[in-house]
Amino acid sequence: MSDINQGISLYKEGKFEEALEVFNQLLANTPNQPIILLHRGRVLSRMGKLELALEDFDLLLKTDQYNADFISDRAVVLHLLKRNEEALSELDRALNLDPNNPYRYSSRAFLKDRIGDLEGAIADYEKAIEMDPEDAVSYNNKGIVEEKLGYKERSKKSFDKADKLVGYQPKEYKSTNAPKENPVKKTPDQIPEQLKNQPTPQTKSLSFTNYWKTVGKVLSDKNTRAEFFSFIQSKLGKKK
């Protein structure tokens, strides 16, 4: 008999077909169990079976229509279905239900960035930072959006603040002939699990000079994010 931990383990390993079999078996024995529906919905969305994933999140909300986490996950699926107005509406609803959680602002900011509302994304990241001044991830992501808009000084300040919060110091070279540190492109460090490996909108070339050490720290400090966000780095090289 499979258990939920086995399914979650398979899911984290990227073995989605096997994970789906586990969750299907579990739901056959215990129909509409919220925690199992949640993980099956995430597996289905990673497999590109978005309509089926949405059905699971719809069932979840029937069990608890005021659960902000369920609503946020559903919003991601709506976004992948290109139903962006509905997705934003759902994130608004999650924020209204959980207004004291800065994560609600940063997750909405992430989606606004994805769909091109860059000024709106910055406003939401700034609100998240106001509520949680030690949120290095929001500083990092805000810097990315600021750079897209050409706000170079503002983006540099955001990246510097993120670096300071995670304890990263760029290398300094005394000799002008010394080799320079190879820049590494920053990418959003908060990405909904369902968006991993999904195509992202084309953006201008970015050139940044630090790397991320925040994965373990953020996941351990932000319990809500541990369920909704995973942390990845760009697979794209810096363009000349």
Detailed description of the structure:
With 240 residues, this protein is mainly alpha-helical. Among the domains are: 99 residues, Alpha Horseshoe (Serine Threonine Protein Phosphatase 5, Tetratricopeptide repeat), CATH 1.25.40; 65 residues, Serine Threonine Protein Phosphatase 5, Tetratricopeptide repeat, CATH 1.25.40. Helices cover 60% and strands 2% of the residues. The chain has 12 helices and 2 strands. Strands 1-2 form a two-stranded antiparallel sheet. Helix 1 packs antiparallel against helix 2, helix 4 runs antiparallel to helix 5 and helix 8 packs antiparallel against helix 9. It is elongated, with a radius of gyration of 19 Å.
Outline the secondary-structure elements.
Elements (H helix, E strand, L loop, with lengths): L3 H9 L3 H14 L4 H13 L3 H14 L4 H13 L3 H14 L4 H13 L3 H14 L4 H13 L3 H15 L24 E2 L22 H7 L1 H6 E2 L10
Antiparallel strand pairs: 1-2
Helix pairs in contact: 1-2, 2-3, 3-4, 4-5, 5-6, 6-7, 7-8, 8-9, 9-10
Protein name: Tetratricopeptide repeat protein
Keywords: Repeat, TPR repeat
InterPro entries: TPR-like_helical_dom_sf, TPR_rpt, Ycf3
